[in-house]
Design a protein that fits this description.
With 316 residues, the protein is α/β, with parallel strands linked by helices. The chain has 2 domains: 155 residues, Luciferase-like domain (TIM Barrel, Alpha-Beta Barrel), CATH 3.20.20; 145 residues, TIM Barrel (Alpha-Beta Barrel). It contains 12 helices and 11 strands. An 8-stranded parallel β-barrel has the order 1-2-3-4-7-8-9-11, surrounded by 8 helices. Helix 2 links the parallel strand 2 and strand 3. Helix 1 crosses helix 2, helix 2 runs parallel beside helix 3 and helix 5 runs parallel beside helix 6. It is globular and about 60 Å long. It starts with a strand and ends with a helix.
Length: 316
């Protein structure tokens, strides 16, 4: 199991662009497998953050987890992702998802048939990314993307000078319909608020079945997990429960609790000393997770850097 880390704040106050750069440099120096940025209503733009992080580092893979599909036309997202990739000189991991009805409605947009919407979206996104670059920027050498679905009907020239196809395309998915989309049409999923039991019983079977049926390779099973390395585990867990407990009333997060072992959201968080955290990491690996995406939960002395340094030292 690969261990990545968020280099832009996920739970607390938004990171500044300088903080993103510095955390990315630190994550690379510590040997993390990847660095990630979220797309949140109170944060910096995910693609701008990836570019800043990429220009401050040399080789660490960087990704988004996840960019809401409803906010961007798929061709616009493909172009933006490819342009950022050209700027930093290496592939980026592109995590996209439908977000949730509360976030999308805040922007005055309809939230309708999300699984179908995401399926059409990633089909167009994949077609655009596969259409190829136009190295010279000449219009006649650009590709063409055509699609007719329930949500999207288009026929468009598409090309991005000097770029190549980004890295993995992943879908934020928890429910069975979205997991089928992720398995059948992309490289895998990014799950959130899922404990090892939920990964083993709720995510992996549906995702792998869909990938196998579509003739695709074994899918990526990534998970965003709040992590705090601390000797005050119960106190920090109680704070996490108070802060994040509202997720328990929302699908599909509630389903993850129903199929998993945790009784409440606070129990999903990976909180404790190095030994306790190492046990949870091994449990996630045994459950079938391929990429553990740590989102440090700061608490007093347990800062982002403190947790990152100790997490990087854990050997599974």
């Amino acid at each position: 199991m690969r261990i990545g880390i968020f280099v832009s704040e996920t739970w607390g106050a938004a990171s500044s662009i300088d903080e993103v750069r510095e955390r990315a440099r630190r994550a690379e120096a510590l040997g993390f497998a990847s660095g990630w940025v979220p797309y949140l209503p109170w944060s910096l733009d995910a693609f701008a953050s990836i570019q800043a992080a990429g220009e401050a580092t040399r080789s660490i893979p960087l990704g988004t987890a996840v960019v809401p599909t409803y906010f961007f036309h798929p061709l616009a997202m493909a172009r933006q992702a490819a342009t950022v990739q050209a700027a930093i000189g290496r592939p980026i991991e592109l995590g996209v998802g439908c977000s949730n009805v509360a976030v999308i409605s805040m922007h005055g947009l309809p939230y309708e048939r999300p699984a179908r919407h995401v399926r059409e979206y990633v089909e167009i996104l994949s077609a655009a990314l596969a259409a190829g670059a136009s190295p010279s920027g000449e219009r006649e050498k650009a590709g063409f993307v055509q699609y007719s679905g329930d949500f999207f009907k288009l026929g468009s020239i598409y090309g991005t000078p000097g770029t190549a196809r980004p890295g993995r395309l992943l879908v934020g998915a928890l429910g069975p319909q979205m997991l089928r989309v992720a398995g059948a049409y992309t490289d895998g999923t990014i799950a959130t608020w899922a404990d090892p039991g939920a990964i083993a019983r709720g995510v992996v079977p549906a995702l792998r079945e869909a990938a196998q049926a579509a003739g695709r390779p074994a899918p990526t099973v990534a998970g965003v997990v709040a992590v705090c390395i601390t000797n005050r585990a119960e106190e920090v867990r109680a704070r996490a429960q108070a802060e994040f407990g509202f997720y328990e009333g929302a699908m599909p997060y509630r389903r993850m609790l129903e199929v998993g072992d945790a009784k409440k959201i606070g129990d999903v968080c990976v909180i404790g000393d190095e030994e306790a955290v190492a046990r949870r990491l091994r449990a996630y690996a045994d459950a079938g997770m391929t990429d553990f995406l740590a989102a440090p939960l700061a608490d007093g002395e347990s800062t982002w850097q403190f947790t990152a340094e100790r997490l990087a030292a854990i050997r599974l």
